[in-house]
Design goal:
- The strands form three sheets. A six-stranded parallel sheet has the order 7-6-5-4-1-10.
- The protein is globular and about 65 Å long.
- The longest helix has 22 residues.
- The N and C termini lie far apart (about 70 Å).
- It has a single domain, classed as TIM Barrel.
- The chain is an alpha/beta fold and about 325 residues long.
- A hairpin with a 2-residue loop joins β2 and β3.
Length: about 325
């Protein structure tokens, strides 16, 4: 077999695998998970990055977290598949979570890629999709080509898994990225009204409407179903105008305006407060002190529910 013929056969095989996976995006299972799943974007409490040193999440810590979250949420979105976050699928499956979108923080990480392939095969009934990267294109930590290369690798190994990536919403609306995002099986944007100059933490109605309007615009541009991976309001610091009451009001209004459907839902962001995040975010996006990054949690670092948890219970008729 000549090298030219081999390359043609390989190219045809890759195209076939891509076509199979794209067709799978119409699977009714995706519709049911998006419509009925109660998603939470999750980083373990036992994970941290301090002064450049990573503290891996422990299996016990992940188990305690997911037991706590399970009464309110049945689906998870993670950010990485190393440093202890590889424990999440097994624990989630044991606790009967509906679905996990497992994250890869660095699309060029061989460890994360191999972990994702191994875990997706092992926990096929729980791992719903793979999110390759989070805001790294915007931060210029990697390129669209890096994401696509990892997509092709995973597609070759697991043809029917749903693949996506996550970036700030405005990248999805730039024409130079249209072809890139159209390759995703699901859209997984981050839509944060708090970074808009007009927004005030007390303005729940307009903040929620903004998220809905952006989601509508994205769905006019793209045919795929959409899960808002990150949005919301931190509960502090008070010095910046953020409070638990405003956080609760925002989510109540958002979930009223953005009712889940078979093609769109919102993931709650995020599970737990993370005091280590401001310093890390400062390194990722220099300029501001990012103090609010410590307070996005629906639960405190001690696992205490904030008022926002009761607010979403009430919306479900449980409170």
């Amino acid at each position: 077999m000549t090298a030219t013929i081999f390359k043609r056969i390989l190219a045809a095989l890759l195209m076939f695998l891509w076509t199979v996976a794209t067709a799978a995006a119409a699977n009714p299972g995706m519709d049911a998970i998006i419509k009925n799943g109660r998603f939470m974007s999750y980083t373990p409490r036992t994970f941290s990055v301090v002064n450049g040193q990573t503290q891996p999440a422990s299996l016990e810590g992940v188990t305690n977290d997911l037991k706590l979250l399970r009464s309110e949420f049945d689906s998870l979105i993670t950010y990485s598949c190393s440093n202890g976050l590889e424990h999440v699928p097994a624990v989630a499956e044991k606790l009967n979570y509906r679905a996990v979108i497992i994250g890869i923080w660095d699309p060029k990480s061989e460890i994360e890629i191999q972990n994702v392939i191994r875990l997706t095969r092992k926990h096929a009934k729980t791992i719903f999709a793979i999110a390759i990267g989070n805001e790294g294109i915007f931060a210029k930590h990697y390129t669209p080509a890096d994401v696509e290369n990892t997509m092709y690798r995973i597609r070759k190994e697991i043809p029917t898994i749903y693949l996506t990536t996550s970036e700030p919403f405005f990248l999805y609306l730039k024409p130079e990225y249209f072809d890139f995002f159209k390759k995703m099986d699901i859209l997984l944007p981050n839509i944060h009204p708090i970074f808009e100059k007009w927004f005030h933490p007390s303005d729940a109605r307009n903040g929620a409407a903004y998220v809905l309007n952006v989601a509508n615009e994205l769905q006019r541009q793209y045919p795929q179903p959409l899960i808002v991976k990150e949005t919301g309001l931190p509960s502090g610091p008070a010095s910046l105008g953020f409070t638990e009451a405003f956080q609760s009001a925002f989510w109540s209004e958002l979930l009223k305006q953005c009712a889940a459907s078979a093609t769109r839902t919102v993931s709650c962001f995020e599970a737990f407060d993370a005091p280590w995040k401001p310093a890390v975010t400062q390194g990722y996006f220099p300029g501001d002190d990012h103090l609010q990054e410590a307070y996005w949690g629906f639960f405190s670092t001690e696992g205490k529910a904030k008022p926002v948890v009761n607010a979403i219970r009430s919306l479900r008729g449980e409170g």
